[in-house]
């Protein structure tokens, strides 16, 4: 945009806009606004004296006054060809400009596209997602709560959550781990999420235990620790809200899931099954600390015993020993007054 100084006003006083009678000046009246005066060459003219023009109202309804000059003596004066150029930059610190991520954050405005937006989330650049980590997590768990009576979006939301947790596990974004921990402790409030998370995970493990390829479970293993942090926190919130209601249903869900893991460990199949067994040995001990706070530790210890014993003796010996070492190092193994 270009404005002639001899005919229009910008709403600033002479001292802040023109300063002294130098040939160039630059001021920033507000954040994100750059005003630059780029005069064109004029022939020397006599010294000018100031005359004020009153122009139309500015954006605040005030009538601006613009200094102009008439020649009274030696020196230079502002040429009518001088121009004022304004550049602005608008930057949001709240909403992303990424269309795919924005579609998920505003999912309520277009529920028909929710299925597609959940899939697109997993293609968004990680750096953009982690900047809006809390908003994205809020959106995912809001979807879970909104469709608590349906499983239409359960797997997509679960996979999207695994994607987010996987980003935090990346070395490049490890400093966001504290943000995720704080979110679980202070902001997370989805009381029904534990039902959805356990249901999807059990289905994935069951698929793998039957020798079928289950790519989502491969990704979920790396996020298993935080999946159970969300699960346990959700159950605790639900129990506090409804005074321990549905405790048996919760215990049954956890028990069935662990029994599915034990079935997986018994399989003699190679290939993907062997990979799944190795991942189970590595990542399952990581959930024990949280699970033991809401699940019977004695029953949990028996299920873990079966978990280790289910693996054939000549299979994954090194991984089995590492898993047993990790289990022994948990608080579950150190509990007093418990017979395991």
Notes on the structure:
With 340 residues, the protein is α+β, with helices and mostly antiparallel strands. The protein has two domains: 2-88, no CATH class; 99-334. Helices cover 51% and strands 11% of the residues. The chain contains 16 helices and six strands. The chain has helices at residues 14-17, 99-105, 114-121, 126-131, 133-146, 154-169, 177-187, 193-209, 215-222, 224-241, 247-266, 272-283, 288-291, 297-310, 317-328, 331-334, and strands at residues 2-4, 25-27, 33-38, 48-57, 63-71, 83-88. The strands form two sheets. A four-stranded antiparallel β-sheet has the order 1-6-3-2, with no helix packed on it. β4 (48-57) and β5 form a beta hairpin. α6 (154-169) crosses α9, α8 runs antiparallel to α10 and α11 (247-266) packs parallel to α14.
Helix amount: 40-55%
How many DSSP H or I helices? 16
Strand content: 5-15%
Q: Reading side by side through the largest sheet, how are the strands ordered? A: 1-6-3-2
Short description:
This protein has 340 residues and is an alpha+beta fold.
Layout of SSEs?
Layout: E1 2-4, H1 14-17, E2 25-27, E3 33-38, E4 48-57, E5 63-71, E6 83-88, H2 99-105, H3 114-121, H4 126-131, H5 133-146, H6 154-169, H7 177-187, H8 193-209, H9 215-222, H10 224-241, H11 247-266, H12 272-283, H13 288-291, H14 297-310, H15 317-328, H16 331-334
Antiparallel strand pairs: 1-6, 2-3, 3-6, 4-5
């Amino acid at each position: 945009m270009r404005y002639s100084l001899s005919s229009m006003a910008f709403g600033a006083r002479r001292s802040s806009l023109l300063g002294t009678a130098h040939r160039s000046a630059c001021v920033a009246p507000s954040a994100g606004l750059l005003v630059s005066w780029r005069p064109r060459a004029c022939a020397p003219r006599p010294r000018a004296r100031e005359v004020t023009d009153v122009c139309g109202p500015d954006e605040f309804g005030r009538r601006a006054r613009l200094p102009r000059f008439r020649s009274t003596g030696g020196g230079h004066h502002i040429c009518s060809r001088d121009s004022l150029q304004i550049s602005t930059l608008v930057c949001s610190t709240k909403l992303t400009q990424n269309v795919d991520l924005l579609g998920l954050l505003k999912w309520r405005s277009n529920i028909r596209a929710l299925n597609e937006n959940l899939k697109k989330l997993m293609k968004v650049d990680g750096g953009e997602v982690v900047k809006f980590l809390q908003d994205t997590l809020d959106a995912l768990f809001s979807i879970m709560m909104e469709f608590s009576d349906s499983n239409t979006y359960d797997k997509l939301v679960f996979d999207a959550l695994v994607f987010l947790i996987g980003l935090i596990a990346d070395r490049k974004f490890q400093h966001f781990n504290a943000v995720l921990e704080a979110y679980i402790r202070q902001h997370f409030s989805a009381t029904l999420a534990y039902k959805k998370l356990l249901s999807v995970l059990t289905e994935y493990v069951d698929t793998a235990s039957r020798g079928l390829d289950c790519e989502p479970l491969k990704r979920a293993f790396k996020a298993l620790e935080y999946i159970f942090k969300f699960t346990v926190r959700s159950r605790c919130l639900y129990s506090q809200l409804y005074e321990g209601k549905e405790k048996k249903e919760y215990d049954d869900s956890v028990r069935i899931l662990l029994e599915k893991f034990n079935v997986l460990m018994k399989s003699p199949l190679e290939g993907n099954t062997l990979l799944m067994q190795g991942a189970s040995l590595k990542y399952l001990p990581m959930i024990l600390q949280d699970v033991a706070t809401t699940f019977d530790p004695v029953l949990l210890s028996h299920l873990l015993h079966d978990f280790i014993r289910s693996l054939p003796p000549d299979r994954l010996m090194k991984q089995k020993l590492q898993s047993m070492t990790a289990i022994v190092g948990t608080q579950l193994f150190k509990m007093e007054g418990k017979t395991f």
